[in-house]
Write a structure and sequence with these properties.
- The structure is a single chain.
- Helix content is 80%, strand content 0%.
- By secondary structure, it is mostly helical.
- The protein has one domain.
- Helix 6 runs antiparallel to helix 7 and helix 9 crosses helix 12.
- The radius of gyration is 20 Å and the shape is globular.
- 49% of the residues are buried.
- It holds the Pfam family Chromate_transp.
- It is a multi-pass membrane protein.
- Belongs to the chromate ion transporter (CHR) (TC 2.A.51) family.
- This is Chromate transporter.
Length: 392
């Protein structure tokens, strides 16, 4: 009975956070700190800092991974699953309903769809600028950022992104060791190493097997699971970085139009919860409710497997300067990937007229200088764009 009440508590608290956590991953971490550390004392500040460090090291949505990890610490694997469901469910439902509405009403050419594409321009440019300041603060990392962006712009292929990330990790490990800040904090996580090895084996096995299954069986369910699982496995830097990877997998293959893709991305900025639930919108547009379930589970599954797999080894890994240095290189390259994605498809598809650019400038200014939350900026930009389009 005590275990059941604990599970219910984990789910209800995570669901409330899922409804109220606006502002992106950094804001999510602040909400978690207030709720789980300060208010409920489920873990100490030290343990919470350890969790953040671990989830920044892993690919995937950092804030969701922190929430999953806290759920696991509180209630084991079931607690982690319940924490994930609670935190992601509100945005999944909202985006799935939005996708259904767009499909049913055939709103691909509506004025407010154009407004949402303009929102995407403002939000991604804001993300690029701020991530660049944090992740490429010196000339060597700026050089890596620029080289990554140039490579992706000149060779805009999915495999190029993987090569860029791999090379950035090697360069970082070789040249950034002196600026890595390692510490000796003790990890506070306990998982059976057998379970961890199984999770890591499953992670690697799916990553290798799914493309083969997709090639031989050519089924929409396998194709969707392969695409979203693979992207969830390689994305460093959070939700905004998932945009170029998903766009280059889904749009050229004809699974979704570029207009609907960018409209959904703009709508995702206006809701609470993790940006990775953008996958729920895409899955719904592509193949209804089954597509939504497959896309959502597939893109988050790597996070579960990696957290379970890495926890017992984290204390040893974090002390290795080469690991931290490689991550510095990867982070700089991630910003370069964002720069390339900002030009195409976001800017080239979102900015077609002087009105588009003017309203995008308004959205960026509200984010950058007036520090308004993304959901509010989405509403303001859409309203202003629709009003101006009546007169211009």
């Amino acid at each position: 009975m005590e275990r059941l009440s604990r599970y219910i508590e984990i789910f209800l608290i995570a669901t409330r956070l899922g409804f109220t956590s606006f502002g992106g991953p950094v804001a999510h971490l602040a909400y978690f700190q207030e709720e789980y550390v300060q208010r409920r004392k489920w873990l100490s500040d030290q343990m919470y800092a350890d969790l953040i460090a671990l989830c920044q090291f892993l690919p995937g949505p950092a804030s969701s991974q922190v929430g999953i990890s806290i759920g696991m610490l509180r209630g084991g694997l079931i607690g982690g699953i319940l924490a994930w469901i609670g935190f992601t469910l509100p945005s999944v439902v909202i985006l799935a309903i939005f996708a259904w509405y767009v499909i049913q009403m055939d709103l691909g050419d509506a004025v407010w769809i154009g407004a949402l594409k303009v929102v995407a321009v403002a939000v991604v440019f804001h993300a690029v600028l701020n991530m660049g300041k944090k992740l490429a603060p010196d000339l060597p990392r700026i050089a890596l950022l620029v080289a990554s962006a140039m490579t992706l712009l000149l060779f805009p292929f999915a495999v190029t992104q993987l090569i860029v990330i791999a090379l950035a990790a090697i360069i970082g490990a070789l040249y950034f060791k002196e600026i890595v800040n390692t510490d000796d904090r003790r990890a506070a996580f306990k998982f059976s190493k057998k379970i961890s090895v199984f999770a890591l084996s499953l992670f690697v096995g799916l990553l290798a097997l799914l493309p083969v299954l997709n090639h031989y069986f050519n089924h929409i369910y396998i194709e969707l699971f392969d695409i979203f699982y693979r992207i969830g496995s390689i994305v460093f830097g959070g939700g905004h970085v998932v945009l170029p990877l998903l766009e280059r997998e889904l749009v050229p293959s004809g699974l979704i139009s570029e207009d609907l893709f960018l409209a959904g991305y703009g709508a995702a900025q206006a809701i609470p919860g993790p940006l990775f639930t953008f996958s729920s919108y895409l899955g719904t547009v592509i193949h209804g409710i089954p597509g939504m379930l497959i896309a959502t589970i597939a893109i988050f599954l790597p996070s579960f497997l990696l957290i379970i797999g890495v926890l017992p080894f984290w204390q040893q890994l974090r002390k290795m300067k080469y690991v931290g240095a490689a991550l510095l290189g990867v982070n700089a390259a991630v910003v370069g990937i964002l720069v390339a994605a900002f030009y195409h498809p976001i800017f080239t598809s979102g900015i077609m007229t002087e009105l588009d650019f003017a309203v995008a400038l308004l959205g960026f200014s509200l984010l950058q200088f007036w520090k308004r939350p993304a959901w509010l900026v989405v509403i303001i930009v859409v309203v202003v764009y629709m009003l101006l389009s009546l007169f211009i």
